[in-house]
Design a protein that fits this description.
Strands 1-4-5-3-2 form a five-stranded mixed sheet, sandwiched between helices. Helix 2 crosses helix 3. By secondary structure, the chain is of the alpha/beta class. It has one domain: Ribosomal Protein S5, domain 2 (2-Layer Sandwich).
């Protein structure tokens, strides 16, 4: 199993958000940047104006779990930041919706490993 590290520092997020390539889904959007390391780095950000802390943490847990399930199919060496779209209602935060978005985004970014 691959180990993914979390982005924690503000400058790490800013680096990926400013230099990474943008991909969009219906509920989430992602910035993806090559990091030239042997592991992936994951960041999740949800704006304060979207919802209160309980709902924001719920969305983060769903995104993190979806990423964990797809982790073994993703190539190493990328920094990924997932953002919740501000204009999307919090009621759309369902596991299946985020899973579809994440698969579409990672497929567009062409970072799935080739199937043998």
């Amino acid at each position: 199993m691959k180990k993914t590290r979390m982005l924690k520092k503000n400058y790490e997020f800013k680096n990926v958000l400013s230099q990474g390539k943008y991909y969009s889904g219906k509920n989430i959007e992602a910035f993806i940047k090559k990091n030239d390391k042997e592991y992936n780095m994951l960041g999740i950000a949800i704006g304060v104006k979207v919802a209160k802390a309980v709902k924001r943490n719920f969305i983060k847990r769903i995104i993190r779990e979806n990423y964990r399930l797809l982790e073994n199919k993703i190539k190493c060496g990328y920094s990924i930041v997932f953002l919740w779209k501000k204009k999307v209602s919090i009621e759309n935060a369902r596991f299946i919706n985020i899973e579809k978005d994440m698969i579409d985004i990672l497929d567009k970014a062409n970072i799935f490993e080739e199937q043998k």
